[in-house]
């Protein structure tokens, strides 16, 4: 039997397993919306791969994560994995009420509790498939940012090489309109470097469907959300060009395929 540290044993007691949460979210999703998924057979059952999609709403992650049978690794904002840090910054401010007697007596207890809860949330998200990344404004200077993103890219390539399925939204952020934004080349670059398939997919009908007004007006209930997964581009199909040029060419093809998938599934 594999030896486990006290920390790992403690985590196993408190961390919620992924599968029950996935099934709960899938049931809830289908109670609220009318979700249709096509092309699941295009996701490899095993082995490393990059799954890309247009990004319209927070709902995209839930639709994608509950549709695909495999565990999907998602890149998320650092703040989601360390929610306590914003509050701790306030507590450390000299003007904070907790720095004045008698509230200062409970400050250390509160800091300890916040760190414990934040650490648990971070571990839980990673247990479900999340991975924190910094945004450029969180890195002190351009040189540090370049080094950080190089290390992050290498780490993701390593994860894919170990057989993980990574989800990347090539637009880099949620679109403000129904039209997809321009795709960045990172996802194609990752797939080419790792030598794994890259799978285009498109989501339609999710735009603004988690906004309060969608529920207050009743628009969300029964709204059709379609998630179409297209045929992968396999490593042997990648252009035999230098990495930067090859990634640009693959990205252009992915953008074309995703736009088509939003209109209708591949046949």
From TrEMBL:
What Gene Ontology molecular function terms does this protein carry?
1-acylglycerol-3-phosphate O-acyltransferase activity
What are the UniProt keywords, alphabetically?
Acyltransferase, Transferase
Report the pathway entry. Answer: Lipid metabolism
Question: Cross-referenced InterPro entries, in alphabetical order?
Answer: Plipid/glycerol_acylTrfase
Residue ranges of every copy of the Phospholipid/glycerol acyltransferase domain listed in the record: 49-206
- Tell me which SUPFAM superfamilies the record gives: Glycerol-3-phosphate (1)-acyltransferase
What does the record list as GO biological process? phosphatidic acid biosynthetic process
For whether the record's keyword set contains Acyltransferase, the answer is: yes
Please report a single Pfam family linked to this protein: Acyltransferase
Q: What is this protein called?
A: 1-acyl-sn-glycerol-3-phosphate acyltransferase
User: What organism is this sequence from?
Assistant: Leptospira gomenensis
């Amino acid at each position: 039997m594999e030896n486990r540290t006290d920390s790992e044993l403690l985590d196993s007691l408190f961390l919620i397993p992924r599968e029950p949460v996935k099934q709960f979210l899938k049931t809830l999703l289908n109670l609220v919306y009318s979700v249709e998924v096509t092309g699941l057979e295009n996701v490899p059952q095993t082995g490393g791969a990059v799954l890309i999609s247009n990004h319209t709403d927070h709902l995209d992650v839930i639709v994608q994560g509950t549709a695909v049978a495999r565990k999907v690794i998602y890149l998320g904002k650092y703040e989601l994995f360390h929610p306590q840090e914003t509050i701790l910054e306030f507590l450390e401010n000299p003007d904070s009420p907790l720095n004045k007697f008698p509230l200062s007596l409970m400050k250390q207890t509160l800091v300890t509790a916040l760190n414990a809860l934040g650490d648990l949330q971070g571990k839980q998200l990673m247990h479900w498939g999340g991975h924190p990344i910094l945004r450029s404004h969180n890195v002190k200077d351009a040189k540090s940012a370049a080094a950080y993103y190089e290390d992050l890219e290498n780490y993701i390539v390593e994860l894919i090489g170990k057989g993980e399925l990574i989800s990347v939204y090539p637009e880099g952020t949620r679109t403000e309109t129904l039209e997809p934004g321009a795709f960045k080349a990172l996802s194609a670059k990752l797939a080419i470097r790792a030598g794994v398939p890259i799978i285009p997919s498109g989501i339609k009908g999710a735009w603004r469907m988690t906004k309060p007004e969608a529920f207050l007006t009743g628009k969300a209930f029964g709204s059709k959300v379609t998630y179409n997964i297209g045929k992968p581009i396999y490593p042997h199909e990648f252009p035999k060009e230098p990495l930067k040029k090859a990634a640009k060419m693959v990205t252009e093809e992915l953008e074309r395929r995703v736009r088509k998938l939003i209109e209708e599934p591949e046949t």
